[in-house]
Design a protein that fits this description.
By secondary structure, the chain is of the alpha/beta class. It is 38% helix and 13% strand. α6 links the parallel β4 and β5 (155-157).
């Protein structure tokens, strides 16, 4: 299936991309931008933005839409990773940092301790930087979730990914109800934290199902949603079922913000869960807590 012209990306600023890539290589850090083959890597690296991928690069789940390598081997956490990540934040002069991880189902706490150490180190080195976490479902370990939240991230993101009907095919090791429960618990116990979620379209869902997911997320008081076009990383991954037109992405945005009451819905063909994540600082100024 040929990509439509609205999925073309801007020519990357190669010099700036090289600078960021060299920095990440020097500090031995992974980014989801590189590991997941994000189409916005050029734009984000050129603007000095990166979403750090910790505890990887191998993931203990093998979701058929994702380009991150599968590795279910039990691996010890690297105690130097939080320090190196904080150093990158300082060198890149980041006002807002996004920290995500692979699934680490081999760890009792799902990697919660590493998220906490990363938050603490960033706060030590760059206390004005706002911190957004994009976390996995932790296999429903609510004690681990509580420990993460007590470290006080500014934004807690957990992606719902797709509509519930498609979970067995798209996210076979995930559970729709569990993801909603995670988001509910965060907002219920830490109401001042901005919650965020995201989903892909083009995997076989109907527009009405996307609207139903948005309704579910808003029912659980999620503040921010991202919606973007799924693009198959390779022929081995799930195929694209359809290319959603830009006007339908705008319909999702309008329905989410004007009808359902989200603080922000970022919806476009090239939107990804961390795309333009730094804009959340402006949102926090508009809607302070």
């Amino acid at each position: 299936m040929l990509k439509p012209n609205w999925l073309r990306v801007k020519a990357p600023q190669l010099e700036r991309i090289g600078e960021i890539s060299d920095l990440l290589s020097d500090l031995k850090l992974n980014t989801v931008c590189q590991e997941a083959s994000c189409p916005n890597i050029g734009e984000c690296f050129a603007s000095g933005t990166a979403t750090f991928l910790i505890m990887g690069p191998g993931c203990t789940r093998a979701c058929p839409y994702c380009d991150i390598d599968f590795d279910k081997t039990a691996r010890a956490l690297d105690p130097s990773e939080p320090y190196r990540l904080a150093e990158a934040v300082v060198r890149m002069k980041l006002h807002h940092v996004v920290i995500t991880s692979v699934n680490r189902d081999d760890l009792e706490d799902g990697g919660a301790s590493q998220f906490i150490d990363c938050i603490n180190e960033v706060r030590k080195r760059s206390d004005k930087t706002t911190i957004e976490l994009l976390i996995p479902d932790l296999c429903g370990n609510w004690d681990a979730l509580s420990k993460i939240m007590k470290a006080s991230p500014n934004v807690l993101n957990h992606n719902i990914e797709t509509v519930p009907r498609l979970y067995p095919r798209v996210r076979p090791q995930g559970r729709y109800a569990l993801s909603l429960e995670l988001l509910r618990r965060v907002k219920e116990s830490w109401p001042k934290v901005y919650t965020k979620s995201g989903l892909m379209v083009g995997l076989g869902e109907k527009d009405s199902e996307v609207t139903e997911v948005l309704s579910d997320l808003r029912l659980h008081k999620v503040d921010i949603v991202t919606i973007g076009q799924y693009l198959a990383p390779s022929a081995k991954h799930l195929p694209v079922d359809r290319f959603v037109r830009p006007d339908q992405f705008e319909n999702f945005r309008r329905d989410g913000e004007e009808k359902l009451g989200f603080l922000q819905v970022i919806s476009s063909p090239l939107t990804r869960s961390s795309y333009n994540a730094g804009e959340v600082r402006k949102l926090m100024e508009r809607f302070p807590r």
